[in-house]
Write a structure and sequence with these properties.
By secondary structure, the protein is α+β, with helices and mostly antiparallel strands. It contains 11 helices and 16 strands. Helix 2 packs across helix 3. The radius of gyration is 22 Å and the shape is globular. The two termini are 23 Å apart.
């Protein structure tokens, strides 16, 4: 594929729901970060960013409103490159940041990107960030080889990288349940708008993996069980008996071969109902294991994909965008997060060619803050360093504390970094990490940050075609 011909395209099947959910308080934004072993050179990073966009054009876009749907259009503006901020992952406005739907930051030895989920999922964002890192190192004079997560910026974009993989794997199997019951939520004192408390828990992947094996579960099953357990115990203390659940996004590339750098993920839910019985941690662990292995399979995922694609491409295909957005916003407002107690997204291991390992310290993943979920968690590992992150919109830190204590009780060594006022050093077994891991700069978006984007010199026929395309 000619990189320069990639000028506009529709949102993928998953991405279509996110613009309708947007508000001045919230948008579905997440962050991936890589920490190197030396301070970031801004000028070199800026050139590396330009080269990376040429290789991954699906992220060098702005979003446009059509009559029936949103679509992406190549962005001719320069993307801002900023020093990092304390309150990252704040909401996306389509007329800010020169129209880009991702924000690029640097701080000390760290490069971070905040990504609007309509663009891609965590895997696609990881490939972009690591390709940017590889290009940065190459411009610094390092020897760089390429692999799964680091693309050669001199290579051509492939058709498969830009595909909507949901469409490719749609079948007639559409029997999938898309609704869930309302769940318990740990509430507290909300932070001001656009603010969030972030906590990164560093642990040895080998240590947590061995512990998982001793329970005969995966790392994801173990960590989700701990998260479910601490919320369950928190609810019992308050005398409530609502269902407690954890939503877990699944990378579909593990089941359906695809090299797409756009969205190709769906969410599964694990839950317990305290009205039925009281649970020990071991019982929760067994339940999570059984639930995940029942729904996390190719047949179940194919049914879900087919069901959602059928809704988007047949049932509401010709519904005007304004009506679709109204329905999506209403559904999100009165459902969505209310059916999940917490979210935990595990990107898994980020692997690079061995020659590059020496330049990289760690990799982290943060889900954006929720509207009612106090605990939205991200997991990623690089080498033996696994980082579990919390994004919490409440001042209270008891979920983080209970989670840390539970892992320490199971013999896991923890190092904690946070932008909170407390560093959790009062918990026996916690080692305090880098006190400068987070920036002290706070950014509050406002109307003055909005920009007017340049327009393509398009014929009226072409503009109308894009606008009315469905």
């Amino acid at each position: 594929m000619n990189n320069k011909s990639f000028v506009w395209f529709p949102l993928d099947n998953a991405g279509t729901v996110f613009p309708g959910q947007n508000s001045d308080k919230w948008a579905n934004v997440f962050r991936v970060s890589v920490q190197l072993n030396e301070e970031i050179d801004r000028n070199i990073l800026k050139q590396a960013l330009k080269n990376t966009f040429e290789r991954i054009p699906t992220l060098k876009v702005c979003i446009k409103n059509g009559f029936f749907r949103h679509y992406f259009e190549n962005n001719k503006e320069e993307i801002p490159l900023n020093h990092d901020i304390k309150n990252f992952c704040y909401r996306i406005n389509f007329k800010e940041n020169n129209g880009y739907l991702l924000r690029v930051f640097y701080h000390g030895c760290k490069i971070s990107i905040d990504v609007y989920h309509a663009l891609c999922d965590g895997y696609g964002a990881s490939v972009f960030l690591m390709t940017l890192t590889g290009e940065y190192l190459k411009l610094k004079g390092k020897a760089v080889t390429y692999g799964q997560f680091i693309l050669d910026t001199d290579s051509e974009v492939t058709q498969e990288e830009t595909e909507d993989a949901y469409i490719r794997y749609t079948t007639n199997d559409t029997k999938a349940n898309l609704t869930n019951a309302m769940a318990y939520h740990k509430k507290g004192t909300k932070l001001p708008r656009h603010m969030c408390n972030y906590t990164a828990v560093h642990m040895s992947f080998g240590q947590i993996h061995n512990l998982s094996k001793s329970f005969d579960v995966t790392v994801t099953e173990l960590l989700a069980s701990v998260l479910l357990y601490v919320h369950y115990k928190n609810q019992l203390e308050k005398g409530s008996r609502k269902p407690v659940s954890v939503q877990i996004p699944v990378n579909l590339r593990k089941f359906f071969p695809s090299a797409t750098l756009r969205n190709f993920v769906l969410c599964v839910l694990v839950s317990i109902n305290p009205k039925e019985k009281q649970y020990t941690f071991e019982e929760i662990l067994c339940s999570v294991k059984a639930q995940l292995r029942k729904v996390n399979n190719k047949k179940a995922h194919n049914a879900y994909i087919s069901r959602t694609v059928k809704i988007g491409n047949q049932a509401i295909k010709l519904v005007p965008l304004a009506v679709k957005n109204f329905i999506i916003k209403a559904g999100f407002t009165f459902g969505a997060e209310y059916s999940t107690t917490a979210l935990m997204s595990n990107l898994g291991p980020v692997k690079v060619p061995e020659e590059i390992n020496e330049y990289i310290k760690d990799f982290s993943f943060y889900t954006g803050p929720g509207l009612v979920n106090g605990a939205r968690c991200g997991v990623a590992s690089f080498g033996d360093n696994l980082i579990f992150t919390f994004s919490n919109i409440y001042r209270e830190d008891d979920i983080e504390r209970d989670f840390l204590k539970r892992l320490i009780d199971m013999g896991i060594d923890l190092t904690v970094e946070t932008n909170r006022d407390t560093d959790f050093s009062d918990i026996k077994g916690v080692t305090v990490g880098d006190g400068n891991a987070y920036s002290d700069d706070v950014f509050i978006p406002s109307a003055k940050d909005k920009v007017k984007l340049k327009k393509y010199d398009l014929s009226v026929k072409e503009r109308l075609y894009r606008y009315f395309s469905f």
